[in-house]
Structure formats: structure tokens, C-alpha cells
Specification:
4 strands; alpha/beta; four-stranded mixed β-sheet
């Protein structure tokens, strides 16, 4: 018979946590002050959009992009074919959106006259 076995019944305090709690500091902890920042008034921007079938066609039209960029706060350059949205030649003139999904989204914005209004 093995006498080194633990008793088969569970200990009575099994449900209690074994972690020791630190003593309460008496509420004298220095809590950092919360800085309240007020929201500034929204800045409204004028957006414009131009569509291209490919990146090559967009890059060939950089003179037009430079002119369009002057008339708005953000020029959205939408290229229907998939490709880089980080192309430095195009990003210099505005925000690039590439792919059929982006093309559809911005076409719908044009249909809804979204580009006629100012937005945040």
C-alpha cells in the first residue's frame, strides 16, 4: 500500500483564489489628472475626382492632375485596373484608388453628387 498518496477528497477551500491581495494604501494614491481636450470645429474640405482606365493613362495626364489639384483640398485619382495605390508619381497630385471596387464606389459618389458638397 502506498502511503504517499494525497487524500482523494478535494480541499474545502478549492473555490477560493490563492492570490494574496496587497494591503490597501488607504486611498492616498495620487491619480493622474485627466486632461480634457475640446474638439475643434470640423474642417470642411472640397473633394474632386478623376477617373482613368489604367495607371499608364493617369501618369500621362500629370499636367491635368496638377491643375485639378489646385481647385480642391483633396483630389481622388481613381484607376479602374488593379495596381499600386502608393505610386509616387500619382500620390504627388492626390489620393490614389485602384481597382474595380474603388472605381464603383467613386462612380456612385459622383451619381449621388457627393463631390458637389463639402465634407469633413
Amino acid at each position: 500500500m502506498n502511503t504517499n498518496r494525497r487524500p482523494s477528497h478535494p480541499p474545502e477551500n478549492k473555490g477560493r483564489s490563492r492570490r494574496r491581495r496587497r494591503p490597501n494604501q488607504g486611498g492616498t494614491q495620487n491619480k493622474p489628472e485627466v486632461e480634457v481636450t475640446k474638439k475643434s470645429a470640423p474642417v470642411l474640405k472640397r473633394y474632386a475626382v478623376i477617373f482613368y482606365e489604367s495607371h499608364v493613362l493617369a501618369k500621362e495626364d500629370v499636367e491635368n492632375l496638377a491643375k485639378l489639384k489646385l481647385d480642391c483640398d483633396q483630389l481622388n485619382i481613381v484607376v479602374k485596373t488593379e495596381g499600386s495605390m502608393d505610386d509616387p508619381e500619382l500620390v504627388a497630385h492626390g489620393r490614389v484608388y485602384a481597382g474595380e471596387a474603388w472605381h464603383l464606389i467613386h462612380k456612385r459618389r459622383v451619381d449621388d453628387q457627393w463631390y458637389d458638397d463639402l465634407h469633413e
